[in-house]
Design a protein that fits this description.
Elements: H1 2-79, H2 83-99, E1 104-114, H3 132-144, E2 149-152, E3 155-156, E4 163-166, E5 169-172, E6 175-177, E7 181-186, H4 189-196, H5 202-209, E8 212-223
Antiparallel strand pairs: 1-7, 1-8, 2-3, 2-7, 4-5, 5-6
């Protein structure tokens, strides 16, 4: 009898333990399911917000295209009115050209930059990558050599353009870019090429480190217009009074 009681007690303890483990497992599954549901809900919300942003961008692009067409029509109509209107239209075209708001073409050079493929001993992973400062130096040298229009991976460089690193990514005009980087410059091709091939210059120093760089001259290059927006909230034009001393 005593032996049966011990067996019953042991069986009872085992049953309690199993019941406890089943309860814990059930709670764990319930918590995991709740977490997954929350994660799925968050993902759905983010996808919905992304879809709205894309739709808004598409609408804004359509509005921009419509306004651009309207301006072109207004300009055509104005040119047919008076000689003064034609003069103003020519001045506007010149301003747009200088500001980078129109596609341009002309002679120039293209520079292709690639990261170092095989890392040499003593070089860190960062040393093998093209950085924002490398691109900025090349742009500065091109400007000093008389470049009239410059782009990086077909993103037009204007007075407010920024070239910066965000983690491993280079941003040009807030556009993410990856190697190879192709920098185009319109100007006197011989002069631009000579500036890029100077001994001890930015390109020469990069080649010493092992970066793959090629420079090509072109009889005709096409550089697209700047596609972003430029807003001035602090700078305003100074109104001059006729006859006043400057």
């Amino acid at each position: 009898m005593m032996k049966n009681n011990k067996v019953q007690l042991s069986v009872g303890i085992v049953i309690l333990i199993l019941a406890f483990l089943i309860t814990i497992q059930f709670k764990s599954v319930t918590v995991n399911n709740e977490q997954r549901s929350k994660q799925n809900l968050r993902v759905d919300e983010l996808l919905g917000e992304l879809k709205k942003e894309r739709e808004q961008n598409e609408d804004l692009q359509k509005q921009l295209d419509a306004l651009t067409n309207d301006i072109a029509q207004y300009r055509t109509d104005a040119e047919q009115e008076t000689d003064y209107s034609k003069f103003l239209s020519e001045q506007l075209r010149r301003a747009e050209l200088m500001a980078g708001f129109v596609d341009v073409e002309g002679p120039g050079i293209s520079i292709q930059l690639s990261d170092i493929g095989n890392r040499s001993p003593g070089l860190s992973a960062s040393d093998t990558l093209i950085h924002d400062e490398d691109i900025r130096r090349i742009i500065n040298e091109l400007c000093a050599a008389g470049a009239e229009a410059i782009s990086v991976n077909d993103s037009r460089i204007i007075s407010t353009s920024a070239v910066r690193c965000v983690g491993p990514t280079i941003l040009v005009n807030d556009t993410k870019m990856a190697p190879p980087y192709v920098i185009k410059a319109i100007g006197k091709s011989n002069q631009l090429e000579a500036a890029m091939n100077l001994n001890g210059g930015v390109i020469d120093n990069m080649k010493v480190w092992g970066f793959s760089i090629s420079i090509t001259k072109h009889k005709k290059l096409t550089i697209p217009k700047y596609n972003g927006t430029v807003n001035f909230s602090s700078a305003t034009a100074i109104e001059t009074v006729k006859g006043a001393k400057q």
